[in-house]
Amino acid sequence: MNKITSLEKIKDYEMYNPLLTLSEDLDFDNRFCILNTNIGDIAFSYYDIGIAPDYIIQDTILFLSFGKGYYIVNLKEKNLLYQSNDSLSVIFEIVKSDIQSCVVFIGEMSLICFSLKGERIWENNYKNTIFDWSIMDEGISIVFENNEKWLIFFKDGNGIPVV
Predict the structure, then answer these.
(1) Which of 31, 32, 72, 112 has its CA 20 to 30 A from that of 3?
(2) Are 131 and 145 spatial neighbours (Cβ–Cβ below 8 Å)?
(3) Which residue stretches of the chain have pLDDT < 50?
(4) Residue 103 forms beta bridges with which residues?
(5) 66: helix, coil or strand?
(6) What is the pLDDT of residues 69-97, one digit of tens each?
């Protein structure tokens, strides 16, 4: 049942009564969406820069990214656990590691790791742009724009260069 619906695509004008409404910047937002969950709907708006919203739901905790922001929501309690403060790094993807029991937001110039309960574990900010990545059992293999390669470990955010 979980899916994101753009309000521009709704033809039958369904009525929504969202649990929460989130916005990047109402003065500039040009995309308005509803995320349908088993517990209720989350409405959000953002400025579309070409990267689709992404989310993971773990039990009753929602990990959501859209535009230049990311949010962690306790769906059961209907409250915001965490909201990004900086809008300098766009989030490309959200990944979950079952082995390390964490969720990582992969950003343009950062990696941010949270526990499955929504508590921040670590955050890495980089001077170079992340160009590519792949998920491994122990961490995330990232390639920067300068072709530098690193393996960043889920457990603590530390990394080692890969040759």
Answers:
(1) 112
(2) yes
(3) 1
(4) 96, 114
(5) strand
(6) 899 999 999 999 999 976 667 999 999 99
How many whole angstroms separate alpha carbon 91 and alpha carbon 111?
A: 9
CA distances from 153 to 45, 58, 77, 101 (A): 33, 21, 31, 12
Q: Rounded distance, CA 99 to CA 139, Å? A: 10
- Structure tokens belonging to residue 145: 């724009």
pLDDT digits (tens, 9 = 90+) for 94-108: 999 988 899 999 999
E strand map for 47-129: 54-58, 61-66, 69-74, 79-83, 91-97, 102-107, 110-115, 120-125
Instruction: Read off the CATH number of the domain in which 144 is found.
Output: 2.40.10.480
